[in-house]
Amino acid sequence: MPKATNEMRLQKAIAEAGIASRRHAEALISAGRVTVNGETVTAMGVKVTPQDAIEVDGVPLTQEQKKYYLFYKPRGVISAASDDKKRRVVTDFFEDEPQRLYPVGRLDWDTSGLLLMTNDGDFANRLMHPSFKVEKKYVAKLQGIPTREKLMPLRDGLVVDHKKLAPARFKIMSTDKAKQTAIVSLTIHQGINHQVKKMFETLGYKVIKLSREQYGPLTLAGLQPGDYRALKPAEVAALEALSNEG
Question: Of 45, 133, 162, 234, which has the fewest CB atoms closer than 10 Å, so is most exposed?
Fold first, then answer.
């Protein structure tokens, strides 16, 4: 008997329902928290169809309408859907939205700026994959005033934590001789932990303040910290096209 054309892997079905990213869905399956037609499934690769009854922690899986938001994350907010220490998290700003949302990637607690939020786990997983090399522009306030020559190693690719990074672009936007600080923009397309801070620290400059101002074609135009807006269909399509290229 031929297989149904609408079959998909169980972890993908969970991700598309907005429950979790595909990687987190695999962890849920491994932990025995998923049932299919009343039977617990712990193996990867199980195929399901829309006719199968899937439950996660006893809650039936339903297909939510996919949502995509651009969020201006303030400083002092955790890039997570929840926090066991009861600290403020990004989903606290979306309490009026019926969908279960989570961030695409993360920004440090003390970093503000552009963060994507979605309930589309498959979309989030593609954007977070190492092969996805979208350009991200950060603006950093540095302790100290660098010269262009001192920052030139950024363009060659620094070695950070024993890893050679890809070349980055920079621009010295302003300096304050009285306070001995500078504002510098940095455009990268990688995403290792604390990358921007580590890059500047490698060159001898402490980052006092950091914000992500651009993510691929998206900017923070018209938004204040704590604001968000729905992505336009063309913007979602542009990100999907970039992720497919990766």
Answer: 162
